Amino acid sequence: MKRTILVGLTIIMAAALMSCGKPASGPKKLTLMQNKPEIDAQLKAYAKVWGEKNGVQVTIKSIGGTSGGMGPQLKADYAAGDMPDIFAFDGLESYKEWENAILDLSNEPWVSKTSVAFKYNGKVYGFPVAVEGWGMAYNADMLAKAGIDPKTLVNLEGYRKAFAKLDSMKKELGITSVVSMAASIEMGWVTAHHNFNSLLSNGLPYGDLSVVNDLLAGNVDMQRLKEYADWVELLFKYADKTILLTGNYDAQVGAFATGKAAFLHQGNWVDPNMKAANATFKMAFAPHGSMEKVTDGIFVAAPSFYAIYKDSKNVELAKKFLNDLVTTPEGHNYMVKEALMIPAFSGIDLQPEGQLSRSVQEWSAAGKVYSWNQYYFSGDFRDKVLAPIYNQFAAGQITKAQFIDLMAKAFKDNAKK
């Protein structure tokens, strides 16, 4: 009896050991972390379709906007040994921070289909998420009602006149502010990333880094900085103070979408928000008026890039996920029709439906574009040094003269590091 039990147990244990040696294969998994919360729902929907088609469980983690920067979360995941297979980065400084973790993508088939992939030392490391642009988004119907020609919005004087006229007509136009602008610390990416770029590239030939290099070296063109401070002051003066100081992304974008502001300081990435709000009025972009001289163009570039974590166990799956965005009808539909993005790749026949994306394309086709140069400065410098300065200026805690002095000091201190 005992021998029979022993034999039985031996057989069971042997079977268990054999099953341990050949574990049941679970579903393949892929994780992507990205920094554009406005396309979170659309990307998750596409990932579900792609995952079902390829037998992969795809997890999308969207961090950005008012949910904090992606950088700290990525560092925490890296420290915990839980890095996403694909993650977004926004430019040179971010690449340098993660270069030892990023896979060389130079030989991927999609590389030949784009001119805006992220390259470093002749190799490709970043898949461009889209082509984006921003200037000052305006409600064309409202400007027409006020008798303002958008073509006059090309310098400080043009904006001074337009803002003053709109402000005098607020009741008639049904607006609560002329500009929807945000300057809280959590919205520092509006001020210390996007608005900051006006100082760095407005009016310069595309790719011109002369101002950037001077500022990185601590050499400040005080006249350019003073005119830029006039621009920042103008935006803050005509903004709704509640949105300016405490408003989140939805509040800022919502004020424009619902016709409560004539201008919006955002880019064409708000097209999905405009669609969701059923905003049917005519809208387009005008240049930033950050200088006394005419600057007839808007800021256009690839906003961010997908990198593949080189130590991922799912490198081939990650490569396929990115390549399928470029080569499949489902990928095209997601980028253009669902996420309302301007694709960064050739061979995609679909055209964006969003008015602001179409405006970006028109400015680009006319060759009236300026670079995105803010990412030549570190994220810490923009978020921890510059953003609080803008915030203090918006809150009236410092004067324009102090804003200028603090900005100049920040560049000089940064150059000493």
Task: Please supply descriptive tags for the structure shown above.
417 residues; alpha/beta; D-Maltodextrin-Binding Protein, domain 2; 13 strands; disordered N terminus
Biggest sheet statistics: 6 strands, mixed
Count of folded domains: 2
- The CATH class assignment of the largest domain is Alpha Beta
* CATH level-4 homologous superfamily of the largest domain: Periplasmic binding protein-like II
Strand tally: 13
First-last Cα distance: 81 Å
Beta percentage is 5-15%
CATH architecture title of the largest domain: 3-Layer(aba) Sandwich
**Helix/sheet category:** alpha/beta
Q: Going across the major beta sheet, what is the strand order?
A: 2-1-3-12-5-4
Q: Radius of gyration, Cα only, in angstroms?
A: 25 Å
Q: Please state the average pLDDT score.
A: 92
Oligomer: single chain
- In the predicted model, the low-confidence regions spanning at least 5 consecutive residues are 1-24
The rough form would be described as: globular
